[in-house]
Design brief:
heterodimer; A: 69 residues; alpha+beta; Translation Initiation Factor IF3; 4 strands; B: 357 residues; mainly alpha; two-stranded antiparallel sheet; 15 helices; globular
Chain lengths: 69, 357
């Protein structure tokens, strides 16, 4: 599964990376790793707005979102 | 634990609350249409520290201190304190520097632009239009690959530097130490720097806003950016709440005076109100958030945001030392020059700092 690393990136990079990938693949499944609650919340919201499901899990200090459509 | 604040209803309610708090601060002594202004208040703090000597705008604003410490408290309470740093800090310092300059030509950061609008100051419309334009330009750069690189997790003590600085400033404000030459801090006897709510009220207001803004991720620049970039209105709801709350509060307190001429701590130079905020909006967008958000992030341990804040302080001091800041009478001698230099600098930053992450 494709994994995008958005750790350490300023707003709005995590969302931009996610949106670019969503637009590129249209549907499917991929993971995106972030390290702040803000990025997690923003990507979850973006996923919802675009009709993708987002599952969130913690991985040590990081947060992994699995997006699926 | 689910973050109940970070919902559409939550952030709208928080926005209204912040708008009301700002109006109450105005009622209790803060300058008109300036219950909260990050640019003006950083400028006042720069004055209190003697970094500039404009006698009418020197005061250690507790609201700014509260923003950082409140955000820090919320971050620790909800396990979101993440010390991090290292994303092109010198660039962020320069962005903060020029953001302050742009804002002080308009005479307000985005927060104050909204409060001025809610107070009936129609000159704020040019500023808000400029802000939107600046953010739009910033988005063009972001879409074409602009980014300042990743920050790294760092030591907790590094992430605590800005909160520690704020505690130090608070101690100075409360103790008011004396040197042989007189009071250590500068404090205006007249003008906007002499207009302030009681210290504890300002501090409490700042702390509450800091907590609520950290929880909701409140950001006046992100609000516009997210609508343009991804058609997301979450942050914009917070902004709408702030305007609504402040407007209602102004009506209740008789602080709503619609018009363009003679507005408090404002000028009618539409072109430079617009251009100053284009610069500010662009700089904030390139830095990842409005100046309030940078304070809240610095409270969360973000050392890059802290550097941006130091840039704001430096830019504000510079603006008053070199005739760049505007006043109610109009723009300063070097306002136009430095807004132009600032725009050129930010455009250069946007163009030259693009790559695939």
């Amino acid at each position: 599964m494709e994994r995008i690393d958005a750790r350490g990136l300023s707003c709005p990079q995590p969302v931009v990376l996610t949106k670019n990938h969503i637009d590129k693949i249209g549907s499917g499944e991929f993971e995106i790793i972030v390290d702040t609650g803000t990025a997690r919340d923003n990507i979850s919201r973006l996923a919802g707005n675009c009709g993708w499901a987002a599952a969130v899990r913690n991985d040590g200090e990081d947060i992994v979102l699995t997006l699926k459509k | 634990m689910k973050n109940l604040f970070a919902t559409k209803k939550g952030i709208f309610a928080v926005g209204i609350f912040i708008g009301l708090i700002a109006v109450v601060l105005q009622k209790m002594g803060n300058p008109a249409n300036m219950g909260v202004c990050v640019a003006c208040f950083c400028r006042d703090i720069a004055g209190a520290l003697g970094l500039h000597r404009a006698a009418v705008v020197q005061y250690m604003r507790p609201e700014i201190i509260g923003f950082v410490l409140g955000s820090m408290a919320a971050a620790f309470a909800f396990k979101e304190f993440k010390p991090r740093a290292g994303s092109a800090p010198v660039v962020r310092f320069v962005l903060g520097f020029f953001a302050a300059i742009g804002a002080l030509v308009f005479l307000g950061c985005p927060w104050r632009a909204l409060l001025r609008l809610a107070g009936g100051d129609m000159n704020a419309l040019a500023g808000i239009a400029g802000l939107v334009a600046g953010i739009w330009i910033g988005i063009l750069f972001i879409k074409s690959g602009y980014n300042l690189g990743r920050s790294q997790t760092t030591y907790a003590s590094a992430g605590l530097i800005m909160p520690a600085v704020m505690v130090g400033l608070l101690i100075l404000a409360m103790v008011q130490p004396q040197l042989a030459t007189g009071p250590a801090l500068f404090s205006s006897k007249e003008g906007p720097g002499s207009m302030h709510a009681p210290l504890f009220l300002s501090l409490a207001a700042g702390l509450v806003i800091g907590i609520l803004a950290q929880r909701t991720r409140f950001c006046t620049v992100g609000a516009v950016r997210d609508v343009i970039l991804v058609r997301d209105f979450y942050l914009m709801l917070g902004v709408a709440g702030l305007v609504a709350g402040a407007f209602i509060g102004n009506l209740v307190f008789g602080q709503f005076h619609p018009g363009m001429i003679g507005q408090p701590i404002a000028h009618t130079d539409t072109l430079w109100n617009f251009a100053g905020m284009v610069l500010a909006g662009l700089a904030f967008t390139l830095a990842g958030g409005c100046p309030g958000r940078q304070l809240f992030m610095s409270g969360e341990g973000d050392g890059d945001a802290a550097v941006f804040v130091f840039g704001l302080l430096a830019g504000a001091a510079f603006a008053h030392n070199f005739g760049i800041a505007a006043s109610g009478k109009g723009i300063g001698e070097w306002s136009a020059l430095f807004v132009t230099i600032g725009l050129a600098s930010c455009i250069t930053i946007g163009l030259t700092m693009r790559k695939k992450i």
